[in-house]
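User: I'm writing a short methods note and want a consistent example. For KxDL motif-containing protein, I'll paste the sequence; you return only the structure tokens, no commentary, since I'll be parsing the reply automatically.
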Amino acid sequence: MEEPIREASQEMSNEFKTLVKAEDLTSLRQLQHLILGRLQDSNAVLSHYNEFAENCFSDVSLEFSRNTRLLKSMKADLDYIFLKLRSIKSKILATYPDAFPDDSTSDAFDRRPDLELPQ
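Assistant:
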């Protein structure tokens, strides 16, 4: 039973060998090796770039977080300053109603845009 199967498979493989030329197979194998080499080179370059980018990101992220904290602190300071200025201005207006021109006494003392609102 096994012998006819083995003969049939050999006959089938021989038929497949006649369908494709040996030179074509050699050429395909060489092209595959060339492509493999290029892919390995590309992989090495990308790995090197990923390491470089990771190092740069770690350096920049520390600076970015430090600057973010500084900006938040500055914003809090400026908010406090503007609050005090509004308070002083309202006290001056209460004491001296003629101290400021009419257009500066409108409800919009703070004309800065609110950066925390979505645009």
